[in-house]
Amino acid sequence: MQAVLSFDQAPPFAAPFRFFVTAPFFALIAGVLLAVLGPEAFSSRWTPGALALTHLLAIGFLLQVMLGAMIQILPVVAGANLFHPLVVARVVHPLVVVGALALSAGFLGMADFAMPLAMATLATAAGLFFAVAAASLRGIPQTSPSIGGFKLAMLGLLVTVLLGLLLAGGLRGYWSLPLIELTQVHANWAFGAWALALLSAVAYVVVPMFQITPPYPGWFSRRFGVWLLLAVLATSLAILRFDDEIASAIQMTIFALAAGFCGMTLWLQSRSRRTRPDATQKFWRMAMLCGMAACLFWALARMFPELAGWRGTPLLVGVLLLVGGFMSVIIGMLYKIIPFLIWLHLQNRGQSRVTAPNMKAVLAESRMLLHFRLHVGACAALVAATVWPDVLTQLAGVAFSVAACSLLANVFKAAGVYRRHAALVDARLAEIAADASAGSPAREMP
């Protein structure tokens, strides 16, 4: 069963959009940092630079967009009206921004107060958002797979943040913990029970809606989130029991489920009624292919000791998953969500008297396709840099920065369209009101 969308319950435009505007800055910061750090950042996944880069993207980019999307999607898709969404956004947004910057600075050893500041801000932001979202979802019947997926994803977010706080405190020496094992558990919850669970829940709605595909099969969409949560739970228990063989075997289930989701989405895309794929479909297709490649490479590393022992294996899998997979699909969603939100809010602002611009007028397809090419090039450079870090790391950082600038320019272009047309709508409504008071017939703005 597909979700029934209620656009009349959409939150104020400024609530989700503030997250969408600032997220590309973190991609740009990550690219510049990679270019500055050079080969050192890709010498190991445990280097301060690699940890800082990972969290700049995971929190500064992915988490920001996901939180903004949930503020928009929860009331529209699930009928879960957030308590004062604009107020929540105004509090959570700066906390996430400060927390992501402070955490990365803490990994780089830039200031003693950075890590405690990150712990405080991110814990407050996640705690507040979880409380508000959980309260809005309480009592909402699971009339579609997306609603159940949102609930599972919120649980994944809570556990991910708690594990992150434990790790940050352990790095500061506040308590003694098995940091390596806990980091593995943290990563499983972050990318499995939170990011992939939320992505799948959103995909059940946006893929058929925006890409004009058949819906996800009911047997898949109803069970995928539960299977994923159980696999993450079982893997976490095995890791914490220090049973590497069992943990690796169970973790294979997580990667198999991820590959299954990618394969299912690609199959649905192949049945799209669109004659030509647009930029969003290209980003989604790239994301699914990169996700499948990451899962395949991880499986090969478990079968061949040479790959398992290679320094670049975790870096390559991480780049394919984080940048090629999750970041690509997030960008693809942004390129549909942003124009749609601008059209929707301008249409509502016009009160059925002033028409909103077409979605294609908000952001030209050529601009999105240019960014797609730049993003593909940046991903290719990052993958190559994991193999030849001494030669290509700085080039990859520059390429990634250029792609981030393209995304940033597109988001600001769309924001400019909204501001200009909002002013035109207000002016036209004022003219209509003046004409009505003077007894003149009202004319609709084309």
Provide a quick synopsis of the model.
This protein is mainly alpha-helical and 446 residues long. The protein has helices spanning 14-37, 48-78, 85-107, 114-137, 145-171, 179-211, 218-221, 224-240, 244-270, 279-303, 305-308, 312-349, 359-362, 365-387, 389-438.
Protein architecture, described:
The chain is mainly alpha-helical and 446 residues long. The protein has three domains: 21-139, no CATH class; 144-275, Four Helix Bundle (Hemerythrin (Met), subunit A) (Up-down Bundle); 278-446, no CATH class. The chain has helices at 14-37, 48-78, 85-107, 114-137, 145-171, 179-211, 218-221, 224-240, 244-270, 279-303, 305-308, 312-349, 359-362, 365-387, 389-438. The protein is globular.
Helices and strands in order, then pairings?
Blueprint: H1 14-37, H2 48-78, H3 85-107, H4 114-137, H5 145-171, H6 179-211, H7 218-221, H8 224-240, H9 244-270, H10 279-303, H11 305-308, H12 312-349, H13 359-362, H14 365-387, H15 389-438
Helix pairs in contact: 1-2, 1-3, 1-15, 2-3, 2-4, 2-6, 2-12, 3-4, 4-5, 5-6, 6-8, 6-9, 8-9, 9-10, 10-12, 10-14, 12-14, 12-15, 14-15
